[in-house]
Each structure stands twice: as C-alpha cells, then as structure tokens.
Design goal:
The structure is a homodimer.
Chain A (H helix, E strand, L loop, with lengths): L7 H4 L4 E4 L5 E3 L6 E5 L4 H6 L3 H9 L3 E4 L2 H16 L14 H12 L3 H7 L18 H15 L7 E5 L5 H10 L2 E6 L2 H13 L6 E5 L11 E7 L10 H11 E14 L13 H7 L8 H10 L3 E7 L1 H16 L2 H7 L2 H19 L3 E9 L19
Parallel strand pairs in A: 1-3, 5-6, 5-8, 6-7, 8-9
Antiparallel strand pairs in A: 1-2, 3-4, 9-11, 10-11
Chain lengths: 394, 394
C-alpha cells in the first residue's frame, strides 16, 4: 500500500489512519483522529493524487468510509489535497442557459428530499440560508430570527406593504415579515415539498390573509411593479450565469419605482477576470446542487445594475455562514441514526460532507455570502432611503 | 433667430430667455428665470441641437453668458438637451494607460489651481470629497466631520495603528484620524499646492510626530504590508481603467494581512456590459478632470477582488454627494467677486458649471458614490472584523 503513496505523505504527519480492505492499518502521523477506511484496492491510486472532489465521490459511492469528527475529516482532506496537488485551479465550466424544466428538476432534487430530514438540523422556522450572529454566541434559532429581522429592516418594511419573496423555501421569512412587520407577502418556490409544509405553517399561524404562496418560476412573475419590496434569499445561486440578466430584469419588473430589492446569496471567490468556479466544486455540482452556479459579487453587481437597479448597500456575511454551517453540521452529526431513517444512505453521506465541507469552505474564503440591497430609483433619480444605515442598528 | 430653432422648443415652455448679440430678446416660456446671452451668431446652429457638453463649452469659451441661479441653468439645460436630442448615449472612449507624468500633470491642473479659491467654498478642513449627512440638516463643516468619522469607524482605527492615506489632499482626513483616533498617518499626494498647505496645517496642530505627508505616486508605495489600514478617498477616479489592477495591487501590497482597505470614490452609471461613460461627460474630461475615468461599482469590485482583497461592506452615498455639491456650489455662488480675484475667468466659469452640474448629476443618478471596504484576509481565510456593523452607529 505505502509503495503507492507519495513519500511526502508521511512528511505531513497528518493525524490520519488508513485501514485497508484486508484489515491492515497505517498511521500517517501520531495520535490519528480520523480513520479513512479504504474498502477497495482501486482507491489506492486515487489516494496518491487526492482531491476533495475525488475523495468525496468515493465516500458517497461507499468505496471509502470515514470515522472520526466530520469537521476534522474535511480539514485533513484539505491538508492532504493541498500538500499533494496544491490548490485546485478553478475550472472554466461550460455554462448552459437553464430552462424551466431543468431548474424545476434541480430544485426538486435538493429541496424535495425530505422535510423531516431538514427539520432535524435546521432551526425551528426551517430557514435554509446563512444566519446572522450579532455576537457570535447565539444559538441557531436566535441567529436565524436575527437574520430575518436584519433582512426586513434592510428592506425598511412598513405595515401594509407588499413583499415578494422569490424562492420562499418553507416560508420562514414570509411568516416572520407578515407577523413582525405587518406586510402582505407573496412567496414563490419550485419545490412542492416546501410549498406544502410552508402552507401548513401559514395556516397554523392563521396568516392566510397576509401570506400567499405558490409554485411559480421566477420567469413567470408579474412585471407590473406591483410589489413595494422584493427579497430573494439563497435562490439566485440556482439561476445560472446565462440567465442572470433575465433574473434581474424579472426582479426589476416586479418592484415599483422607489422600491427596494434585496438579493442574499452565495458568491464566488473568482471573478470573470479569472475562471469562474462552479458552485463549490465538482462534488457540489454532482451531488448537492446540480445546475448551481456561483457568480462573483462583481458579476451579480453588474447584472443588477444593467437591469436598472441601483446598488446602495452590500454586506458580506461569509463568516456568519461558516458558523451557520458548523451548527447545521453539528446538529446533523448528533442525529445520524434518526437521519438514516429519513433519507437514503447515499443522501446522508452527501449531506454530511456538504455541510461540513461548506462550513470549512466559507471559513477559508472559498466562497462568500453577500446581501446586496438595491433600489429602483424614481424617474427623477431620487429614492426614499434614509440618509444612513443607523436605523438597522437601533 | 427662431427660424433656426426647432418648433418643439416653444412647446417645452421653458422659463428661459434668449438675449441675442443685437439685443433682441426671445422668451421661450412664461416668467423666464434664466437668460442665455448669445453673444455670437455662430451659436444659433448649436442651439438647434444643444447638448450639455456643447453649451458648457460655449459658456467656458465666453461665447455664451448665463444669467440666473446656476442650479436652474443646469436644470433647464438638461430639459433642453433631453427634449431636443434625447438622453446622450455614453460614448465608448479609448482608455489609454496613464503614465506617471500624465497623472502628475492632470492632478496639478485641477488641484494646484489655488488653495485660497478652494478655501472659499470647501469646509474649514478643506475636505474635497462627498460629505456624510446623518440627518440631511447638517451644515458642510458638520457633514465633513461626520464623513471623516464614518471613514475612521469603518476602518476600525485603533490608537497606534499605521494608516496610509492615498491621495491625502489638504490632509483633512490625516489630521482628523491622528487627532481623534490616535493613529500614525502616512499621506501621499501628487499636488504640490495641497502638500504645502497640508504640511502647514499639520505643523500648526503640532501633529508632526503622527502625520507624515509626501509627494508620491501610488505606484511607488512600499509593498511590504507595513500599514494596518489603507484609505483612498476621491483618488481612484484619476487612476484610469487600464491601471486599476495595478492600483488595487499597490493597495494590497501596502496593507498587512488582516488589514482593511477603504476605497471611497465616484462610480459610473454604466457597467462594462454597456459602454463606459467618461467621468461625467466630455465637459468634465476637457475642462475639469483631464484623464478622469469612472469605473462602475462592478468593475472596481472585480479589480479589488482580483488583487486578493475581500469586499465586506459597500455603501452608496450618491445623494450625500448631491447635497455636498449643492452646498459647495451655493458657497461659491455667494462669493463670485472674491473668487474672480483668485482664479482666471475661464477657471471660474468651469468650476461654477462643474459644481452645479455635478450636484444635478448625482441627484439624477448620472453617477454614483460608493464607499467600498475590503479586508486582506489572514492566511487561513479568517479576518478580525466584528460580526456586525452596529459599532459604526453607536
């Protein structure tokens, strides 16, 4: 076995144990905290040039097992692949425009997995996007409530206003905005599982008069400026580069003059000046978010501006998302038995690696999270935003 | 005369009087508030297809005189050119890389004009960039002090830190940061007139131990990460598109790991997806800021990111700049006699039109003003910024 591994592997002194198909054990450093169970001799060659993508694939396919804390698995895997093959160059993917059917299938793959599974490790409102930590000490429920409030405050929601929620998920934001800010919310999603549970929760809170939810593609949104405010959280990652102009035009068309648009989502590390990385690597693209594409902040800023919206406030919440994903991952790890009853084994392997991997990736700056607030100015170029952002922090 | 003017001109019913070289007067609408004194028959053909650029040029060259409030002159000029020729399409300029000699000459042209002239209409600290209005009711001195404080707070300046001020002007920010936040400031400028007065003011306040200022090109900045923080206010508009990557690399090289970089400046309305407008039109390019080039927010965001900096906070202060310019313009208009003793007549004509025109342009969204805060992350991808921006508003 060792003959196949590069000599430098020992030099790294990683706290990693290899257990082979024949029961042999090899420690690559002292006091191993993670064990890689190599169930198949064909993997040895791959280990000589490991990449996170390849290791992740082998784990999902069951040719590799992992023992030890999932966070350390990722950390050691990164050290391994960095030392042996260096930083992976971003590939230049061939982005194809998504049509509605492709998008519907991709959304269903991820979000229709199992509401009960998501409920295991998300907060009580099932908010499936970056939380907001005012001190870093909050628990997940507190931080998600703070995030919803931060979004509503940035949108300067006033009672009676009409809010469009593009990609409303399980309706956490829609219900919060209706309940706490007294607005009328129209939410759209492409996930039937999300819609069903979201509607149940709206009914359970008696918010049917304030919150309407429907299965709708963003390309079918009304374009008559009927909404005072538009919010899109963790949705534009699914749109794809080719359709970003259309996406931004649809938001522009839906909001009134003087209205605000908030786009909250994951952005890429690389700009168009350097090759654009696919949404978090091949692993994410193959197993987690098919058709996901992450534009850089500069790219989405250009598309938003070209649509006629003016960017007034941008905030990076990268380390908030690292913390959110750490909490999600820890909650899932604490309930693996229950999780295994809710989703197929392969899905569980994917989600374990994806949550821990993304926690690590956000912490290390492989991607970012930006809240971008834009205004559709009045005809005379003015807008009604307050002079400062102090109102967000009162 | 009227035979040369388009029939639609009368339909506009503008509150505008034309007074011709022979003394004849023509009112284009009731109760004219502005008089255009046409001193030269050759101008009549130009009036048939007026553009702000052409009218401005004729005024600077003295072939046209203006009577009436300068703000209304701009407003009527815009209505005139919009009605008769529509919105001017942005031209696709041929951006050449600036060399040091070009930049030095361009900076000298604008900033070495006359310190006493600038002192006539700027605030007491001679802060020649967008002010910050916490309520909109502040006077210029208050709003410039608030701007300096806002910048220092965004940079999270701590006593003893080393701050680099790129394009330090008359040293208002450098002295404020040293005095109020206890930092060591190194400021650079290409204007000898600015440097001389800035040094006098540093000495007058006894801040020589804390504030060092020198005549230096940004391309000659030390690249050893010796500064904790870097600030650049109203300077990057002079860099030019071709040199933006170099400019951002110079800021990156000057700041330590974990350090912050603030870029405060004017951004263009148009992205690279549509032709890039020159810095405020041909008038500005010819008479006010030779070699000035305004990148769109998306463009400067890309260049900042490609240099290795991570954008964490962006704030548009467009309407703050409209207000600032209104105040500057009003102060200059109130002291025209004194101003005429300080600068040549043509310069005074240029500055009158430029201040009033830019006030109008910022109000109408022809350009924008963005404060972009970026961090140079530590090697592990982390940074030391607080979780939220609440500390800016305490």
């Amino acid at each position: 076995m060792l003959a196949y591994l590069p000599p430098t592997l020992r030099d790294l002194q990683l706290p990693l144990r290899l257990r082979l198909w024949d029961g042999k054990q090899i420690d690559l450093g002292p006091q191993p905290r993670v064990t890689l169970v190599v169930k198949d001799p064909s993997l040895v060659a791959q280990l000589a040039h490991p990449s996170l993508d390849a290791l992740g694939g082998a784990y999902v396919e069951g040719r590799l097992d992992l023992e030890g804390p999932i966070g350390e698995v990722i950390e050691i895997g990164d050290a391994l692949s960095q030392a042996l093959i260096g930083e992976e160059a971003p590939t230049e993917p061939d982005f194809q425009p998504h049509d509605k059917a492709t998008d519907a299938a991709a959304i269903s793959y991820h979000y229709d997995l199992s509401n009960d599974f998501y409920a295991l490790w998300l907060d009580r409102e099932l908010v499936y996007s970056c939380a907001y930590f005012e001190t870093g000490k909050e628990d997940l429920d507190q931080a998600q409530q703070a995030k919803l409030r931060h979004l509503c405050r940035k949108l300067r929601l006033q009672p009676g206003e009409r809010l469009l929620d593009v990609g409303c998920g399980w309706g956490g934001l829609a219900r919060f905005a209706a309940r706490e800010f007294g607005v009328q919310v129209h939410g759209i999603t492409l996930s039937r599982a999300q819609l069903e549970l979201a509607r149940q929760r709206v009914a359970a809170e008696g918010l049917e008069q304030q919150v309407q939810l429907e299965l709708l593609d963003y390309r079918d949104l009304p374009q008559d400026g009927r909404f005072d405010k538009v919010v899109s959280v963790g949705m534009f990652e699914h749109v794809g580069h080719a359709n970003l102009p259309l996406y931004c035009q649809c938001l522009f068309g839906a909001v009134k003059s003087g209205g605000l648009v908030m786009n909250h989502g994951i952005t890429a590390r690389y700009t168009d000046g350097r090759p654009v990385a696919r949404g978090g690597g091949e692993f994410i693209d193959r197993y987690v978010f098919p058709e996901g594409e992450l534009p850089h902040l500069a790219t989405i800023s250009a598309r938003i501006s070209e649509a006629g919206l003016e960017i007034v406030d941008v905030e990076s919440l990268r380390l908030h998302y690292a913390r959110t994903l750490e909490l999600w991952s820890a909650r899932l790890e604490a309930q693996l038995e229950r999780a295994a009853q809710l989703v197929p084994e392969q899905a569980l392997r994917i989600w374990r690696l994806y949550l821990a991997g993304c926690a690590y990736g956000f912490a290390h700056g492989w991607m970012n999270l930006h809240q971008i607030l834009a205004v559709k100015p009045h005809a005379d170029g003015r807008h009604d935003l307050p002079w400062t952002r102090a109102d967000l922090y009162r």
